[in-house]
Amino acid sequence: MKKISLKLKLTLLYTFFMALLTCASLAILFSLSSREVLSSAQSKLENRVQEGVEYIALRNGEIRIDSDFYSVARDVYLSLYDDDMYFMYGRLPRGFGQQPELADGELRTIRDGNREWYVYDMSYRLSDDQTVYIRGITSITDAEESFTVTVRFALVLLPLLVLATAVIGYRFTRRTLAPVRKITDTVQKIRADADLSRRIGFAEADQGEGRERDEIYVLGKTFDEMLEELENVFRREQQFTSDASHELRTPVSVILAQCDAMLAEGGAFTEEQISQISLIRRKAKGMSDMIARLLFLSRADQGRQPLHKERINVSELTEMIAEEQQMLADADGRGIHVEMEAAPEIWAEVDETFYIRMVVNLISNALRYSRENGTVKVILKETGGMFTVSVQDHGTGIAPDALPHVWERFYQADAARTEGSHAGLGLSMVKWIAEAHGGSVAAESTEGVGSTFSIMIPKGENDPEKNERL
């Protein structure tokens, strides 16, 4: 399941609590409003009945009713009754079919079918011997229905409010977390191209926005300061490696020259002394190779190792490299056979010197760890705009936990694999050369069975006519 981003989590959390708060507020408001609606209906009914007195007069022994008595004001119907509950004047609401007993000053709730009504009676003394009752009737159901319409309207608006809250929350969260995204992008770019000179740059981007005291701003500024320190440390390390390698080349070259001179005068030394001198020479040669590789990687780190690409026939060049490595394997006397399987006429834009060094490193590495009388297979094939060189050996293999680290400098999957001049730099060189050509590397291995190292490199421009001319 795909993980939910922090931005979406914060948006959902913000929206949830805002929706919860809104729903709780509406519930309380509706509860209070419902009571208020009923209370207002009761108050309007009582006031309307009391106002009805103004529309009744006794003239010459006859009751006179003003026309306003018949009007329905504030949804209240007025009617006039005598002592015997005889209907005299007024209006009754449609749907009210009951005739409850008169009850002076008492507010009652009357249910008639599916509707409820408020009924309020008030006595009024017209003369010493004549009393009438003014009855007011209003619909509770209509009042509640009008309130229900308001509730439904609010419920329709609630999803829109939640949606608006989510959109606003998302935009606010995205803006708030934008610096975090910038930090993440910077780190990913640093990991992709190993460029420690990159900076987040909050100081320039947020200048004048009042974010100097923002926690994320402080984090970004601290991160930039850490990158500055790391860059300085790595620059000093690269300079030290370069300087130390340069300084070591001269004494090692002197040692090799002296060893060669002494071996040339073989008659002046005993067999044991010649053996010891030969051992010194082998170790010095290993040191010389390691220093050369360190210099190569140091220049590569400092960007001082340019490629000089030219269009070459990779098929022929790879076969030549395999044949040379076969001769070295024959001289070693371990009976290892280098088998070549190459697609013909593969042309590519590569640096010939670096390509030779890359393939030689892979084959020599396979020869070093293959069993006696084994086979090292070199496969060259073409796929689309890429070509792949794979080198298979049938050696001891590499443990699964060590396989991802084999391209690292000085990494040793097995302490026993440090013999000779092998110092864990060859595969690092292979990786740099492949990536410098815009390609990539891969490794597969099974313990006790063997390993396969592959390089994938783009061919570059494809011009058949140019290939034929070459």
Provide the residue-averaged pLDDT: 80
- The coarse overall form would be rod-shaped
Strand residue percentage: 15-25%
Tally of extended strands? 14
Which oligomeric state applies? single chain
State the order of secondary-structure elements, H for helix, E for strand: HEEEEEEEHHHHEHEEHEEHEEH
Read across the widest sheet, the strand sequence of neighbours is: 4-3-7-6-5
Helix proportion: 40-55%
Low-confidence stretches: 415-421, 463-470
Structural class: alpha+beta
- What's the Cα radius of gyration? 48 Å
Distance between the termini: 54 Å
Major sheet size, sense and barrel closure? 5 strands, antiparallel
Count of helices?
Answer: 9
Q: Please, could you describe this protein's structure?
A:
- The chain is an alpha+beta fold and about 475 residues long.
- The protein has nine helices and 14 strands.
- It has helices spanning about 5-50, 140-195, 200-205, 215-265, 270-300, 315-330, 350-370, 425-435, 465-470; strands at about 55-60, 60-65, 75-80, 85-90, 105-110, 115-125, 130-140, 310-315, 335-340, 345-350, 375-385, 385-395, 440-445, 450-460.
- The strands form four sheets. The protein has a five-stranded antiparallel beta sheet with strand order 4-3-7-6-5. Strands 9-11-12-14-13 form a five-stranded mixed beta sheet, with helices on one face. Strands 1-2 form a two-stranded antiparallel sheet.
- β6 (about 115-125) and β7 form a beta hairpin.
- α1 packs antiparallel against α2 (about 140-195), α4 (about 215-265) runs antiparallel to α5 and α6 packs parallel to α7.
- The longest helix has about 55 residues, at about 140-195.
- The radius of gyration is 48 Å and the shape is rod-shaped.
- The model is unreliable at about 415-420 and about 465-470 (pLDDT under 50).
- This is histidine kinase.
- InterPro entries: HAMP_dom (IPR003660), HATPase_C_sf (IPR036890), HATPase_dom (IPR003594), His_kinase_dom (IPR005467), HisK_dim/P_dom (IPR003661), HisK_dim/P_sf (IPR036097), Sig_transdc_His_kin-like_C (IPR004358), TCS_sensor_his_kinase (IPR050428).
